[in-house]
Design brief:
The chain has 189 residues and is mostly helical. It is built from six helices and two strands, in the order ββαααααα. The protein has helices spanning 47-55, 70-96, 104-114, 121-134, 138-156, 161-171; strands spanning 13-18, 21-26.
C-alpha cells in the first residue's frame, strides 16, 4: 500500500511465535511484487537510536522512513515523541481521574497511521475504543473496537484474549467496565 506521498509503507509483515511455530502475517494489504519486510527493532524509537541499534546488526536501514531527507526524519521523530507523550499522559490521567481531551484517541490513532506503524496499530485502536467507551460515544467505541479486532487478529492470531475483549466491547458496550465512567466532564467520578 502506498502512503500519501506515494512511497511504499514500511514493514509489511509481522511475526509471532506460537509454541514452536513461527507465523508471519501481513500487517496491511501488500501489492503484488512488493518486497516483504519486517522490522528488526522497535519502530517506536527515534531515527538515531534505530540506526545505532541496526548498526550492531551490521547494516544501515534503507527503508523509506530512514531514507528520507532530514526534514521528514525530524517530522517522524516528532510524531514518535508525540505518541510517547500521549501514551504517558493517558496513563497518568486515566489512573488519577484527570480530564482527558475528547479527541485524544483519534489523535493517537492518526499519529500511528501517519507514522505508518501498521504493526503497532492494534494497541492504538484498542486504547481509542476504550477512551470512546469511557465517554459513552457509541459510534466511535464500536468503530475503534471492530478495527482493533482486525488488527489484533493479525498480530496475535484468531481468538486472542484482547480480540475477544474488543468484540465484547463492540457488542455489549454498555455492560463493559469502561462504559461511561467519564461521561460527566470527562472526569472519573
Amino acid at each position: 500500500m502506498l502512503d500519501r506521498q506515494g512511497l511504499i509503507r514500511s514493514h509489511s509483515i509481522h511475526y509471532r511465535i506460537a509454541n514452536l511455530t513461527h507465523i508471519s502475517v501481513a500487517v496491511r494489504d501488500i501489492p503484488a511484487g512488493e518486497e516483504l519486510t519486517v522490522s528488526y527493532i522497535d519502530g517506536m524509537i527515534h531515527y538515531a537510536e534505530r540506526q545505532e541499534r541496526l548498526d550492531s546488526w551490521g547494516f544501515k536501514c534503507a527503508c523509506h522512513v530512514c531514507s528520507q531527507g532530514l526534514p521528514e526524519i525530524a517530522a517522524s521523530d516528532a510524531r514518535v515523541k508525540e505518541i510517547a507523550k500521549i501514551e504517558e499522559d493517558l496513563e497518568k490521567k486515566v489512573g488519577s481521574g484527570e480530564e482527558i481531551p475528547r479527541d485524544m484517541g483519534d489523535k493517537l490513532v492518526r499519529l500511528y497511521e501517519e507514522e505508518m506503524l501498521d504493526n503497532y496499530l492494534a494497541h492504538a485502536l484498542t486504547k481509542a475504543a476504550l477512551l470512546a467507551s469511557m465517554v459513552g460515544d457509541r459510534e466511535k467505541t464500536r468503530e475503534y473496537a471492530l478495527l482493533a479486532v482486525e488488527a489484533l487478529e493479525r498480530e496475535y492470531g484468531p481468538g486472542s484474549k484482547d480480540e475477544v475483549a474488543m468484540l465484547d466491547l463492540a457488542d455489549n458496550m454498555e455492560e463493559h467496565w469502561s462504559w461511561g465512567i467519564r461521561m460527566g466532564g470527562w472526569k472519573m467520578g
